[in-house]
Amino acid sequence: MHRFLSKKKIRHHIFILNQVDHFRFNRASLINVGFLESGNDTDYIAMHDVDLLPLNEHLDYSFPEAGPFHVASPELHPLYHYKTYVGGILLLTKQHYELCNGMSNRFWGWGREDDEFYRRIKGAGLQVRRPSGITTGYETFQHLHDPAWRKRDQKRIAAQKQEQFKVDREGGLNNVRYRIESRTDLSVAGAPCTVLNILLDCDTNETPWCTFG
């Protein structure tokens, strides 16, 4: 990514968000934490799955002034092709992310948080834009996830099956609960990086599906 972005002359800082608590994986809360911890020297964010790498140098990672820009669009992502998909790689100005109140913290386990975020984007009056003129189709990205080696947590516990289709109108940036266990700044092959070890917190009365118990 560092070589890819440097070639495009895009200033960047990579945050690696590592969940180290005992709760189930919560991608949305981790992105909220990354946003809050990124400081004031950034003007936009890339919500970027670690297992998805761009292969086409014509992909646009520039400032998404006109609205959220979905780099990993359904026409290009190797796996997900439904028209409301906004996962994988999504660029937003910090102002627009705040306008959406970030992402919902209610999604423990794998999936659905980006579908809820699409509805937040639309509810904030923003229009999702996507790449044009990219001719590499489903070969546009390298997808590094091996489900045999790292299985996704797709279990639905208690009322989670019903809750996963609802829009969270109250939570997001305003109520993410966490503590930074450690913060390490380093350079990886010249790339400026910050590794955050994050302890998320969960109100088991609100989302009892944050644990397997």
Quick synopsis:
With 213 residues, the protein is an alpha+beta fold. The protein contains five helices and eight strands.
Protein described:
With 213 residues, this protein is an alpha+beta fold. The protein has five helices and eight strands. It has helices at 2-7, 27-37, 94-99, 113-123, 160-163; strands at 14-19, 44-48, 52-54, 69-70, 89-93, 141-143, 178-188, 191-200. A three-stranded mixed β-sheet has the order 1-8-7, with helices on one face. Strands 2-5-4 form a three-stranded antiparallel β-sheet. It has a two-stranded antiparallel sheet with strand order 3-6. A hairpin with a 2-residue loop joins strand 7 and strand 8. The longest helix has 11 residues, at 27-37. The chain is globular.
